[in-house]
Amino acid sequence: MPPTSTIAIVGLGYVGLPLLLAYARNGYRSIGIDIDPSKPDALHSGRSYIKHIPSDDVAAALAQGTLDATTDFSRIADADAVILCVPTPLDSHFEPDLSYVRQTLEAVVPHLKPGAILSLESTTYPGTTVEEVVPRVEARDLVPGESVFIVYSPEREDPGNTEFHATNIPKVVGGHTPACLEKGVALYEAAFGRVVPVSSTQVAELTKLLENIYRAVNIGLANEMKIVADAMGIDIWEVIRAAATKPFGFTPFYPGPGLGGHCIPIDPFYLTWKAREFGVHTRFIELAGQINRSMPDFVVQKVADALNSDRKPIHGSRILLLGLAYKPNVDDDRESPSYILMEKLEARGAIVDYHDPFVPVIPITREHAKYAGRKSVEISGSYDCILLATHHDEYAAYDFSTFSCPIVDTRNCITRRPTKYHPA
User: Fold this and answer.
1) What per-residue confidence (pLDDT) applies to 263?
2) Residue of 263, 385, 405, 413 marked active site
3) Cα distances (angstroms) measured from residue 225 to each of 159, 292, 318
4) Rounded Cα gap, residues 230 and 257, in angstroms
5) Superfamily classification of domain 223-423
6) Closest Cα to residue 256, out of 243, 275, 272, 237?
7) Fold of 6-199
8) Mean pLDDT, rounded, of the chain
9) What is the pLDDT of residue 157?
10) Which of 110, 183, 208, 322 is the most exposed place for a label (fewest CB within 10 A)?
11) Using an 8 Å Cβ cutoff, are 205 and 130 in contact?
């Protein structure tokens, strides 16, 4: 990309904001667009609204004069490249919900200037770019590969990862035509250390699904092994540590209270849904999904057992849930199993508070809006039971040894353990 190019990033969340800052840092005029006005407002004030992204990075881009942010989609007309980073959740039937992609395309495509690159980064099923992006572009009398260049490049962001961040993760890119691929490679080479071109947008789309299905299936195996080991009275964490000493043929995956994050709980179902169109039943993937979705029930039973050992029922018990984020040391609560645990415990009559140093107040979420505004409380041993769901460093360092209430640990996180310690 010429250094005078303008890059527009649509969707300023955990994927879009790091990408916006990467292009701004490399000297490109970078415009962030989001329907939530609080995000452009924060960026204009030099403030990051994502915990693991320093405000200093935003302030530096502002000082450099390469960063702008807005809610105005007409600014797309200024952009030489437009990158879409919007959510792709599942609906209530575990089928793909492309409403955010479609609505964004309807807002973006009318403003595309001739010669612009249009890239979709949202995780989705193979064929989405061809079926959803291309027809909307062609309806505006733009010709893919000639007057507009369409690519698909799946995001690989891992919030909070200190070793791999947005631009040092190899970037897979597929183009709708060879000319589109050439333009897409140039776009991403401007910000990424390595670009991996593939032969089509469908290959790029399926690549992202394979990456996350690999993790979901192996986590499902670890979760099933945890249930088996628990029934046999064996410490699954010790088993995994021992197995991980093998220098080949084994990669450690770890059990937990359920899957979280925007990718792992969702992406497999994008493929199972699309595979049915071709008469294929993805039994292996669906079985892993069933196991992973059953883990909150396993954990709730462990809480019930812990309370029962203290001669207390779940109904009426006060329970402190440690960790609302889906992974340690970040503020990302998307699809967190902690919400499912809260719902299941409250459905059985428990009174549930939560503590999370990274999520002081529960934001508005698509599936758990009823919890919006609930605030984190202090850690206290005055509860009837404590349930650790997220392995924040703070909890590993915390001294629980004097607590008299039972503690259920789903992450093997607590090192200074009380007498009534219950692994789960």
Assistant:
1) 82
2) 263
3) 27, 12, 30
4) 14
5) NAD(P)-binding Rossmann-like Domain (3.40.50.720)
6) 237
7) Rossmann fold (3.40.50)
8) 96
9) 85
10) 110
11) no
